[in-house]
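User: Here's a protein and a ligand (LMY7XDAE). What would the complex look like?
Assistant: Let me lay out the input and then the predicted complex.
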Amino acid sequence: MTEIIDGKELAKTLDNEMIRQVGQLKQRGVVPGLAVIMVGNDAASQIYVRNKHRRSQKIGIQSRDITFPWDISETELLAQIDDLNHDPDIDGILVQLPLPKHIHAKAVLEHISPEKDVDGFHPINVGRLWNNDGKIVPSTPYGIMTMLDRYHVQIAGKNALIIGRSTIVGRPMAAMLLNANATVTIAHSQTDNLKTLVHAADILIVAVGISHFIRGEDIKPGAIVIDVGMNRDSNNHLTGDVDFDSAKTVASMITPVPGGVGPMTITMLMQQTINIASRRTK
Ligand SMILES: Nc1nc2c(c(=O)[nH]1)N[C@@H](CN(C=O)c1ccc(C(=O)N[C@@H](CCC(=O)O)C(=O)O)cc1)CN2
């Protein structure tokens, strides 16, 4: 029987664990603080930022939302980050992506103190992760690793294929699976013989942004399939990169969309804010 990896349910379990962790921190005089910077009024980003705020409140994290109009200058944005870098009440800083085109996202992300870079996008944190010494790591792949762990998936020695090489998902995912002793392959738009690679994968992570890119007949029987896709169909319904119905008949475990990887992203952001705050007590 195929097991559905339920990100929504796992997120609730982890919320309860985090509420306890925050309670213990507060007894030691530490209130975790998260600053979320949003530029412009992208509709999806507004929803994610609101959800980050609500989850922070639920867990007991002090969250500070800072919203700028889309035409803010890069200099003003960097000055705000400077302030937050020096603010002792703030443990984690994140800038919601995407940013407007006139702002250099790379410069902005590199301006966040690596010790407060709760998204794990700063090159220092990227380097630490690839050195198997990651202290703060990107939330989506961290969420996937947590799902694999909580569903008792054995990673060591397995063939893991990641389709997609983004800095937010594909690359850090590869580092995390490698650190967990998987044999890792990253495939992308220029990859030859993708079908052969997919058919050999024990753990398949799909993050390409193309609706139903992978179908059941492509997958190795018994594979674990993780769908990172978030696409909208003509009816504005959310669809994954994997055709769930056909893949479910072949995989041993699979994540749905929605309700799989997505809910774990904000959960792991919360966990990392707590992790950073707990270093204050050491
Ligand atoms: N600074 C960052 N910007 C962005 C990140 C990020 O990790 N850091 N990731 C995404 C957006 N994102 C969080 O910011 C995010 C995306 C999706 C979900 C989620 O819960 N998805 C649900 C479906 C939601 C829906 O119906 O639209 C699911 O898949 O079940 C949470 C957070 C880009 N920007």
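Summary: The radius of gyration is 19 Å.
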